[in-house]
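It is worth pausing here to work through a concrete case rather than discussing structure prediction in the abstract. The textbook approach is simple: state the sequence, then state the predicted structure, then interpret. We follow exactly that order.
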Amino acid sequence: MSQDIRTPDAGTDGGPSAGRSRKAPRRKRRTGRIILLTLLVLALAAGGTAYWMYSSLDGNIKAVDVDKALGDDRPQKLPTTGQNLLVLGSDSRAGANADLDGGKVSGARSDTALVVHIPEGRTQAVAVSIPRDTLVTRPECQKSGGGTAPAAQRVMFNSVFAQYGPACVMKTVEKMSGVRLDHYLEIDFAGFKDLVDAIGGVTVDIEEPIRNGSAGLDLAAGPQRLDGTQSLAFVRTRYGVGDGSDLGRIGNQQKFLTALLTEVRKQDLLSSPTKTYEVADSATKALTTDSGLASLTALSEFARSLNGVDPSSMETIMLPVAYDKKDPNRVVAYEPNASRLWKAIREDTRIPESAKKSPATGG
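Step two, the predicted structure:
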């Protein structure tokens, strides 16, 4: 899913054109950068050995009632037992998060968006990454202060979450894909700090030195043990990484979460109820879900249904995109490949190789 695109924050005018010269090889992603943390939370919820302790964690999980906002005009449900989840990695700079970043940026942004498809049988999963700069048609959405915002064309995907929230993002994804989304999962990147500190740090192999003075990040090449604050800076930074485009940040996020899951497995947290509770407490504080998953009981039941899913066999695919002809700093879904990809997910069938190809540089 590598994409060498310079992606600005929502509401800025920067763009990806400077990153076109590099051609990144396509390769199968063995793990999804955000879904790994989701599976970690679900696994902790399904631990069972100290379930009585987990009842106090229910209050940590924030719920979003998206059903009313989505209404009845939605794609049909899968005729199988397959499941589709929208997973967002949000990068809010409000409250305590602002302190971690010097308070330079306000509001919440959708830093990462994945449509995770778990086919019937629950033995594998596919995650489709939607580039932040993709121009989409946004349907009519409810405003947070009341009223509705009329539908709009050529809207940058990343701006939908910042302006209208998760329900509007779900409506937009369903509109562009025809895929019915069963659940919503949002993970706040700032939640990494407490989670990593609860684990005792995460070791990440740094390929090249990273020096970002504004983020307070100065890492030498080689294995580095990162604490919570360093980990948050690592997954956020794109300056000082490669050519400074979002490609470097995407790689960092995937590498970090792979290292996180490796650390959890190495520590065998599920054998220690006390340590598991500490980690689960941090993880659930970073989690927002739809109302149907907003409890430890619901998460546990969902986790048990995923017991057969092997994260090492998960594939992450970037939505096929091409540079927009009117604005080279943006991308648009590339047809017919994008339609073929969504069709395979709707029908719970194998995704053809042709549907994974993207003409955008680095795609």
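Step three, interpretation. The first helix runs from residue 35 to 45. The mean pLDDT is 75.
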